[in-house]
Write a structure and sequence with these properties.
The complex is a heterodimer of chains A (442) and B (93).
Chain A (H helix, E strand, L loop, with lengths): L5 E6 L3 H12 L4 E4 L14 E3 L19 E11 L2 E8 L10 E3 L2 H14 L3 E3 L4 E7 L2 E7 L2 E10 L6 H5 L11 E10 L2 H8 L5 E9 L7 E7 L3 E9 H5 L18 H9 L2 H7 L3 E11 L10 E2 L2 E3 L8 E2 L4 E2 L1 H21 L4 H4 L1 H8 L1 H8 L3 H5 L7 H14 L9 H12 L2 H10 L4
Parallel strand pairs in A: 1-2, 1-10, 2-7, 4-12, 10-17
Antiparallel strand pairs in A: 3-6, 4-5, 8-9, 9-10, 11-14, 11-15, 12-13, 13-14, 16-17, 18-19
Helix pairs in contact in A: 1-2, 1-8, 8-10, 13-14
Chain B lengths: L4 H5 L4 E2 L6 E3 L1 H6 L4 H5 L5 E3 L6 E3 L9 H5 L5 E3 L7 E2 L5
Antiparallel strand pairs in B: 1-6, 2-5, 3-4
Classes of the chains: A alpha/beta (442), B alpha+beta (93).
């Protein structure tokens, strides 16, 4: 067969697409990656932090000199009840020593670096090129259409992010509905590295990850985050879309929450003015305001992962997981890109691009941490949908500590009595017990 | 006093295409009472025109998050990516 087809066309220069491009080029395959932004990374948003342990073995040595921001040595969780806050902070000495567990990251910089690595291996990365459609041949995917040009390939990898128009066009994607998504808003503030280390109590190069939950989301599913980068801070809010759609009247507004503002920009504005956040971003200059949707459906929200001539990887497939205090996506993207590349390399050896052969991709994913973790945390979304987690419990902790630490005029109640009063005021024993049981699912 | 979202958007690098990548079907928008797009858009780009009563979207500040595409249950929003090289270019991300 006279072969004017490329081996692989990859749609999207994010971590899944770039990891696949890197591996396929390393295997000597002809790879073209199309990216709609000025550079790979320029349309991409993360919270964000990447956990490295799961992906180091997949790409040995590659990440040793990657342009990460800071390795995370300090984890903090703040429960917010109006303007009252309770913070739990944990420093694990092990995290201070290489190999580091996780790093904060900024995607524009990181994705450009990974793109350069893929190009060193021989991949063609073409920016400013939007893919408009898939090419079909005898009912199978046979390439893409981009800017009026038809590009034929044996296999297409749809790595075009959470909205994945390519997976949708191939009828692999579940309908995009509010109940399965959250909207994330993020601000990047420039701040000198010395000031960051001083404000967060860190040594040079060390980073902190700080999560927030409670009344900042007004009883809705979601939470806030604050990550330290080299010379900037990433501050953001994740809000469940379904709960936002329902409007103010559906929620208990009596819990010390102040005047109700129900639009996303206002919720973000309130969050950044919280004293707990304001102390860190004080004097820092806002550099960028970004937003993106996040898949929150877990394993139940995955797209179909393959069809004749095409695989779906990363966010496009729905590989993202909210495990409560840890939120993951980037390592799933890298791993699914690597696994897709390996399966395609085998498909090219056998010259078989059928759905039947490409189903190997799903089997390999099931053997990997990607699908295993997605399966283990199958029920997190329903557990986290419990509004009491965002209202009652933070308020309860806040009143308890208030009772413990406050000395007023009259004689004080005993500690046990104070604790019982706080618990009774905020949480019926039975619902609290049920909530406790539901935690066994995660 | 926090910064207004309109000012936050000015911090972004954006190269605007001549035409909007977001189109609204006004016949559908007229029948919509909830208008979730107004509250959910992180850039606060949706509003109802005081003169015509029609829904308006300022595509020029779009963060390309996709929220409106999902939030609009009536499918009035047709949303595609801006042409290659156009739209927001995140320098941090």
């Amino acid at each position: 067969m006279a072969d004017d087809k490329l081996d692989v066309v990859i749609v999207g220069g994010g971590l899944a697409g770039l990891a696949a491009a890197y591996c396929l080029s390393e295997a000597g395959r002809q790879v073209l990656l199309l990216e709609r932004g000025d550079e790979p990374g320029s349309k991409n948003v993360t919270g964000g932090r990447i956990y490295l342990a799961p992906i180091r073995p997949l790409l040995p040595g590659l990440f040793d000199n990657a342009p990460f921001e800071r390795h995370v040595v300090k984890e903090a969780l703040t429960m917010v009840d109006g303007r009252n806050t309770t913070t739990l902070s944990h420093v694990q000495d092990r995290w201070r020593h290489a190999p580091y567990m996780s790093y904060t990251v900024l995607r524009a910089r990181f994705d450009q670096w990974l793109s350069a690595k893929a190009m060193e291996k021989g991949a063609f990365v073409i920016p400013r090129r939007r893919v408009d459609d898939l090419l079909w041949e005898d009912g199978r995917v046979a390439g893409v259409r981009a800017g009026g040009e038809e590009i034929s390939a044996h296999v297409v990898i749809a790595a075009d992010g959470a909205l994945s128009f390519m997976a949708e066009k191939a009828h692999l994607k579940q309908p995009l509905v509010p109940s399965k998504h959250a909207v994330a808003v993020k601000e990047v503030y420039g701040l000198e590295s010395g000031a960051i280390e001083e404000r967060f109590g860190l040594d040079a190069g060390e980073g902190a990850a700080h999560l927030f939950m409670g009344s900042i989301t007004k009883g809705r599913f979601g939470g806030g985050f604050l990550y330290t980068n080299k010379e900037s801070l990433s501050v953001g809010l994740v809000l469940g879309m379904d709960a936002l759609m329902q409007g103010p009247e559906q929620f208990d507004v009596t819990l010390n929450q102040g005047p109700e503002q129900f639009d996303v920009p206002s919720l973000m504005g309130e969050f950044e003015s919280l004293p707990e956040i304001a102390q860190y971003i004080k004097g820092a200059e806002l550099k960028e305001y970004s937003a993106h949707i996040i898949t929150e459906a877990g394993v139940g929200g995955l797209s179909r992962l393959f069809t004749d001539g095409m695989l779906v990887a990363g966010d496009a497939a729905g590989f993202a997981l909210n495990m409560g205090v840890t939120v993951r996506g980037m390592e799933f993207a890298v791993a699914s890109g690597v696994i897709a590349a390996r399966v395609i390399d085998e498909a090219l050896k056998k010259n078989d691009f059928s759905a039947q052969f490409l189903s190997l991709y799903e089997r390999r994913l099931k053997e990997s941490f990607v699908m295993k973790d997605m399966e283990t945390f199958r029920h997190t979304a329903e557990v986290l949908a419990n509004p009491r987690l965002f209202t009652v419990y933070p308020a309860c902790i806040s009143s308890l500590l208030d009772a413990v630490f406050t000395i007023g005029e009259g004689p004080r109640k005993g500690l046990y009595r104070s604790a019982m009063d706080a618990a009774k005021k905020h949480a019926g024993a039975w619902s609290a017990f049920k909530d406790f049981l539901s935690l066994r699912k995660i | 006093m926090t910064m207004k979202v309109e000012e936050k958007l000015t911090r972004n690098a954006i190269r605007n295409a001549k035409e909007s990548h977001i189109r609204l079907d006004q016949t559908i928008c007229r029948t919509c009472v909830e208008r979730p797009c107004i509250r959910l858009c992180p850039g606060r780009l949706y509003s109802q025109s005081a003169e015509t009563g029609e829904m308006v979207v300022e595509y020029a500040g779009c963060l390309e998050c996709g929220t409106c595409k999902i939030a609009c249950g009536r499918k009035s929003v047709s949303w595609e990516y801006p042409e290659g090289g156009f739209g927001v270019q995140y320098r941090y991300g």
